[in-house]
């Protein structure tokens, strides 16, 4: 019996290394890639906030998550969570197609003027020990920070999504596997991909994020490899500074999710002209009065 198992194992190994085996594996990866992308686009779509109404929806979602649920920020009388960085940020949303409800949001803080800082520069600059990747080394137009990811509670109803961290995008690796894609947390991944797509299409070279190490680990689950550039510090819980660029993002991503990112990039690219036109028209009127709170 043992010899038979060994023979079968050797045969399987040989087939997998053969041209036929590699062709079959490639076919499986292609099927998975198209499944992931089509599954996301069947139920969800990325959307850029290109109106006052959509921006207010962003701030309402953030208030529910960051103020009411997590209590990271004080309750605001108007139910909107806004800070000083929102005046030079772009906001991404994920819309649930069946209900037409907004299922999550994330922002890309993008300074353009010399006096504009990233949140990580204002509040956590001393935590960055990789001085070659200090955001102050780069031109303002080349950097961004991904922050304020929020998934509202009504889109975390499943038992496997009810755990600490799910509101801000952490993936429960105990509950998910690559073979369980029908229940994968596509909202959180879609938000990160929408942020990445916005940064790539805007030709931003360097992205930073202050996040929990477990969130960085859960992103590596789909092949997004953030580079830690400093130690864990106490900032809204245990967090560390991370860095990523386009090369790091693309080089390590799993094939199925790479196809999904490409589809989201196409969608974001189509929306960018209207979004940028909105910001050019309305920038001076946005976020008044600004609330001086931490990110």
SSE string, helices as H and strands as E = HHEHEEHEHEHEEEHH
Shape: globular
Radius of gyration: 21 Å
Helix content: 40-55%
Distance N terminus to C terminus? 62 Å
Largest sheet: 8 strands, mixed
Class by alpha and beta content: alpha+beta
Write down the overall mean pLDDT: 80
**Beta-strand share of residues:** 15-25%
How many individual β-strands?
8
Specify the oligomeric state: single chain
Low-confidence stretches: 19-29, 158-166, 168-183
What is the tally of helical segments?
8
What does this structure look like?
- There is one protein chain.
- The protein is α+β, with helices and mostly antiparallel strands.
- 42% of the residues lie in helices and 16% in strands.
- Strands 1, 2, 3, 4, 5, 6, 7 and 8 form an 8-stranded mixed β-sheet that branches.
- Helix 1 (2-17) crosses helix 2 (19-43), helix 2 runs parallel beside helix 8 (255-282) and helix 5 crosses helix 8.
- It starts with a helix and ends in a 13-residue tail after the last helix.
- Mean pLDDT is 80; it is low at 19-29, 158-166 and 168-183.
